[in-house]
């Protein structure tokens, strides 16, 4: 059914300990995302948009609430693993460079999610990585280079290739082009 919820957040809150006190970053957030929908969260700087995204992908711990994926509460790691949540829900980060391991080649960065979640042979992996590089418009020689050797727009393309490598069901995009100039924004 096309209107099926793929993700639902119910009264999700996140608090951080700052100077010995808990500060609420987000409080009682409710959202619902159906298959095929795009949801945009708009707010001023510091309003918790990135925290919501990181909470959805599991990089921030919820203080309270529920995160429902395909009808199951994925607040529990066991359920996340059973549903392959970490494969199906990926994130494009606002700051591409800090999300790329500086010690790994671009090949290994893009290959990492494939190696973590797919059971394919080295030849199939290599073919998939070359396809992804082509999709994001980077030359083949980029595969043996390192993140610092690329511009911000190219780094963002690398991050996008890594995110789509496992054909996720849900992509959380945290201002994926905000740090790029207008011509690169249009390309990305």
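^ Assign residues to that structure.
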């Amino acid at each position: 059914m096309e209107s099926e919820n793929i993700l639902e957040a119910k009264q999700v809150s996140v608090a951080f300990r700052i100077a010995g006190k808990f500060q609420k970053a987000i409080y009682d957030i409710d959202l619902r995302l159906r298959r095929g929908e795009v949801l945009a969260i708009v707010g001023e700087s510091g309003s918790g948009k990135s925290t919501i995204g990181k909470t959805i992908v599991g990089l921030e711990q919820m203080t309270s609430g529920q995160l429902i994926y395909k009808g199951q509460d994925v607040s529990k790691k066991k359920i996340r693993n059973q549903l392959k949540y970490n494969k199906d829900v990926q994130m494009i980060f606002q700051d591409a460079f800090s999300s790329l391991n500086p010690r790994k080649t671009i090949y290994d960065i893009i290959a990492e999610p494939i190696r973590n979640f797919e059971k394919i042979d080295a030849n199939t992996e290599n073919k998939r990585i070359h396809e992804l590089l082509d999709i994001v418009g980077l030359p083949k020689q980029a595969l043996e280079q390192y993140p610092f050797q690329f511009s911000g727009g190219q780094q963002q393309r690398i991050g996008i290739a890594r995110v789509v490598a496992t054909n996720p069901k849900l992509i959380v995009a945290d201002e994926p082009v905000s740090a790029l100039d207008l011509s690169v924004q249009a390309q990305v």
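The first helix runs from residue 49 to 57.
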